[in-house]
């Protein structure tokens, strides 16, 4: 932080703050210098914010509070995102002061030498003209297209917009009669020449293409149904057309057929006469036919469901009868030679008994080596658990150290970015060799720390892989052992006790791992609390408290003096 403070104080001197030469860190800045630096930076960044503020702290305590509060409000308006108030300037800690001053220094404008001059000649004039044009367009408010004047339409790019109007098109089709092909080949006009205006060609093509896509999608959706023939598809299409016509007639048949209403035509001697009676009769007849078709369709669907259910039941019954029939046929085949078949079954039973006895002997021969292997595996498991616990603790320690190193690296990278930005903001006429050398040293240290962090992370990953492998092997060993013991635990009391001890050992190991993890968490919390204690200890709280108490005493004296003057007046 010493290098950062030196660069920061140098920037404050460049901004006009009278920082004494002996002051080399933010810790040594007095409240008067902090207030002066903040006001100077505000005046350089935004003069309307810094002009009403005084760079000198007044002698009165109440006036100091007012100035510090106004200065904090100005910093918030400038965009400072941290916690800032009158205490930041009068009783601030080193961390808060450094953070605020870094924000203000970053906001300082660069001088003309750092900006660079505009390119001379035609390119510079073109850049200035482009900038003026952009500022002009940004300054004009947005207006809806229907309310724009001709000049505004040209400026906002809507002078050539036209309404979307279409017309029907006759497109050539393949196949059909020769007369139709002859018409498309010579008599029909080309598609671009069919619209009455040239601007209607793209909208008409878009509308025709959308209609074709919709018809193709509808045909594909219905043609893809099970057992749907082209004739059925056409019948359904006709039925939908009739339904749409019926819906239109049901809504307003007079308006659809442009039939004059009673208010427009003179009524005859009878109320019910007129052209509406045949349409209503046709509508009623079509609706009756539609309802009849729907009833027949529902009846057919119900009958089909019943038939399908009966077919499924018949298939199930037939399958059961076929199995019984096969069993009886097999029994009938064996019945004529019953004595020989019984003798064969007896031989099969005797051979099965001998085989079971032989398998039991083989199991007893294999059981001894398996038990020895089990005991050896259990010993290996215990040693592996101890080793895994030790390596788990080491891994957690390495992870904690790697996280701390990564956090330190991120902090130093952020500091490096700030220093690079401040270095770029410094005037070019100042000698920068010292600062460049310091920055290079900081970058070198950061690079070394990154390499160390990379090595720690590689070691951590390798150790984690090894731990995962050991844990997987341990789980597999426990599963195999548990399965072997569980098979023998029903017959052997010793194996049953061993199985209980195995379960208890597994549970105790899991509890031990959880305890180690909880211990690591508690140690991490302890380290965080120790860091907070160190931060609070470095905040110069006793000095700040002494300053607050002295200001309170001075404020009381001012209040008493004002009260005495009021009484005399």
Number of strands: 0
Biggest beta sheet attributes? none
The SS-based structural class is mainly alpha
Can you tell me the number of structural domains? 5
Euclidean distance between termini CA atoms: 55 Å
- Gyration radius from CA atoms, angstroms: 48 Å
Run of helices and strands: HHHHHHHHHHHHHHHHHH
If you average the pLDDT, what whole number results? 76
Number of helices: 18
Low-confidence stretches: 112-118, 252-276
Taken from the alpha-carbon principal axes, the silhouette is flat
Q: Could you estimate the helical fraction of the residues in percent? A: over 70%
Beta-strand percentage range: under 5%
Brief descriptors of the model:
mainly alpha; Actin-binding Protein, T-fimbrin, domain 1; flat
Care to describe what's here?
It contains 18 helices and no strands. The protein is an all-alpha fold and 569 residues long. The chain has 5 domains: 2-110, Actin-binding Protein, T-fimbrin, domain 1 (Orthogonal Bundle); 131-161, no CATH class; 164-225, no CATH class; 229-256 and 281-336; 378-534.
